[in-house]
Specification:
Elements: H1 18-39, H2 41-75, H3 82-129, H4 135-138, H5 142-155, H6 157-184, H7 186-206, H8 209-234, H9 236-241, H10 245-280, H11 283-299, H12 308-313, H13 323-327, H14 329-346, E1 373-380, E2 389-396, E3 400-405, H15 412-418, E4 427-432, E5 435-436, H16 442-448, E6 449-452, H17 463-468, H18 476-485, H19 489-493, H20 511-525, E7 529-533, H21 541-553, E8 559-563, E9 575-580, E10 583-588, H22 590-596, H23 599-618
Parallel strand pairs: 3-8, 3-9, 6-7, 7-8
Antiparallel strand pairs: 1-2, 1-4, 4-5, 9-10
Helix pairs in contact: 1-14, 2-3, 2-6, 3-5, 3-6, 5-14, 6-7, 6-14, 7-10, 7-11, 8-10, 18-20
Length: 619
């Protein structure tokens, strides 16, 4: 048997004491409560009305049993009034029917409200995602985004359609019952409170902070399994071709085993506590408790034998009404975590809206070319305490091809993503045509700046659908010109249905082909500014030079920024910018920088040595 031992704290790392842990747990509960309140605000009023209906229905569920108790008292009386007995029974039946109708109305209403709420919330979240920085998506996988829009919204179903109604019903029934039983005999009622107290303590244990941590661990394990499954399925051809299928399967199997272990750790403590809570409020246990206490009371002459009857008829159902809360505890915690995540998404900072054109018009005397790009004193960091780019000043002229190079981690891709405003600069400004890009609306900015990055995203649909994303009104001739320029036209024609072939159905593209299709889509948009991050990173040797020639031929009237590691592909560009540790250290053409003997020369020598090794290997 293995025992997990927490690792010792690292040097200088503080260990939270009991008070700190409690304070953090309290803060989390407060955040979750606020998140639930704000997320459910649109339907709160409607759910309150539905809860009132459930409260009335719950009263109607208890009163028939009280009437039956009175009917039994009448039947046990010396003189029986049968008419009164039948009246009591008839009223009980009517109340049960009313209760069923009210319960059905409340549940149907809450589910209809939930359906509308989920639709509205998904639309609001989708609209929100159109306003967050594009860099937000780069930090998350598609499955994580899907979890926000589908899984987390779906998890709120219990909060909307059940939680409040279940709580009202679970509280109203015991409350009405206990009030009645107190009027019968307060001492036996106190005995009946014992299983309820035990149940409440068990519920508190089930909803404690360690339980939340176990759920968080399981959710992370589930996400890991989901990602491992996708990687295993998508990469099975490659790993089998290199004889590494066992390795890929082991990664998937490890993820599944970890999820199974996490599920066991999450469920076992909860199941034992829930079993105890279910047992103490079960009718058998409550009946045994009432009978024992009733016999003792009758023997001590402090209760009439007939007064035990209400406790047996009404008291037995006291605990069963609370069971719904226990069974919904897991769903409630899952919904609470989902509400917290969705609230965090709604609070995500958005890109500031662009100023209207009329407010930012550049005076004629100061007019600059429309495609002129300037970085002026730009600083940027993903965290406030760590800058990735510092003091970047550069200018990209229209009709020129500029290459951005530098060691790995120097900030090349980060700089490129600032131009299409994946992120906003920490200080300084970036302008196009003399106008700060923060004054562009999103639609106008992406009509001005086109981009192709390493992580190519294609939608489910045909080749034609993917191209038309750039320009919905493009005709076949325009599609073909863009595809030819990106050296992907012939590959498209080789597909079963040409441009109508569907991605993932009868069109399976390699990484380089998908990237060239993305280049064609960007060229079709005909933006005055182009940003290409590793434009030929996945291109095969036959098409790499052709793609570079096509891009060079298309720079007329455009401002093009290309990021590349393979320096031999950019020797013919107009200007080369060299980044090191987020600082622009050199700029100029290939020959000038090579002769300068600086960082570019060192990178060039490394590139040449690598090419020589490759050439030697092919001989």
């Amino acid at each position: 048997m293995t025992v997990d031992v927490a690792p010792p704290p690292a040097a200088g790392e503080s260990v939270p004491d009991g008070k700190t842990a409690k304070a953090e747990a309290k803060q989390r509960r407060q955040r979750e409560s606020l998140a639930r309140k704000e997320i459910l605000a649109p339907v709160s009023g409607t759910l309150t009305l539905a809860s009132l209906i459930v409260a009335v229905a719950s009263i109607c569920a208890v009163v028939p049993f009280l009437l039956i108790v009175e009917a039994c008292r009448e039947l046990l009386a010396t003189t029986v009034d049968t008419d009164r007995v039948w009246r009591l029974l008839l009223i009980a039946v009517v109340l049960l029917v009313v209760r069923a109708v009210l319960q059905a109305v409340a549940l149907t209403w809450s589910h209809l409200v939930d359906a509308g709420f989920q639709l509205t919330l998904r639309r609001l979240l989708a609209d929100k995602l159109t306003r967050v920085p594009l860099g937000w998506f780069g930090e998350r996988t598609s499955s994580e985004v899907k979890k926000y829009l589908h899984d987390d919204v779906e998890a709120l179903h219990y909060l909307v359609a059940h939680a409040r109604l279940d709580f009202v019903g679970s509280v109203t029934i015991p409350l009405v019952t206990l009030v009645y039983l107190f009027t019968v005999d307060w001492r036996l009622t106190l005995v009946l409170l014992l299983p309820l107290v035990i149940y409440v303590l068990c519920m508190k244990k089930m909803l404690d902070e360690p339980g939340r941590e176990r759920i968080a661990t399981y959710n992370a394990a589930e996400q890991r399994t989901r990602e491992a499954t996708v990687e295993f399925v998508d990469g099975i051809q490659v790993v089998r071709a290199f004889g590494r299928a066992g390795k890929a399967h082991s990664v998937f199997q490890d993820a599944v085993d970890h999820q199974t272990d996490s599920l066991r750790r999450m469920k076992l403590p909860t199941m034992s506590v829930q079993s105890l809570s279910d047992a103490v409020v079960s009718p058998v246990f409550v009946m045994l408790l009432v009978v024992l206490a009733g016999l003792a009371g009758v023997g001590a002459n402090w209760i009439d034998p007939l007064d035990v009857l209400p406790f047996l008829l009404v008291g037995l159902g006291l605990g069963s009404s609370l069971l719904g809360l226990g069974y919904g505890a897991q769903a409630l915690r899952t919904a609470g975590d989902a509400a917290l995540r969705l609230h965090g998404l709604q609070a995500t900072a958005e890109l500031a809206s662009g100023a209207p054109d009329s407010e930012v018009a550049v005076p004629a005397a100061d007019a600059v070319p429309a495609g002129l790009v300037r970085f002026e004193g730009v600083d940027f960091g993903y965290r406030a305490d760590h800058l990735v780019l510092r003091g970047v000043d550069l200018e990209l002229a229209p009709g020129t091809l500029t290459a951005l190079v530098g060691p790995s981690g120097s900030g090349k891709s980060t700089l490129a993503k600032l131009l299409p405003r994946f992120y906003d600069v920490a200080s300084g400004r970036i302008s196009i045509g003399g106008r700060d890009i923060r004054d562009f609306s999103s639609e106008e900015l992406y009509r001005t700046v086109g981009f192709v990055f390493q992580d190519v995203r294609l939608i489910r649909g045909s080749i034609r659908d993917n191209l038309l994303l750039a320009r919905a009104d493009a005709d076949d001739a325009a599609l073909e010109r863009a595809a030819r320029a990106a050296q992907i036209h012939d590959r498209i024609l080789a597909l079963p249905r040409g441009y109508d072939s569907e991605i993932g159905v009868d069109a399976t593209l390699s990484g380089g082909e998908a990237q060239r299709l993305s280049i064609a889509r960007t060229l079709l948009a005909d933006t005055p500014v182009l940003v290409l991050d590793e434009a030929t990173a996945f291109a095969d040797p036959e098409s790499e030079a052709a793609v570079q020639d096509a891009l060079a031929a298309l720079v007329a009237g455009r401002t093009v920024l290309v990021i590349a590691h393979r320096l031999h592909t950019i020797t013919g560009v107009d200007r080369i910018l060299v980044l090191e540790n987020g600082v622009l250290v050199e700029q100029g053409d290939h020959e000038t920088l090579r002769a300068a003997g600086g960082l570019y020369r060192r990178l060039w020598d490394i590139n040449e040595a690598a090419l020589d090794v490759v050439m030697e290997g092919t001989r």
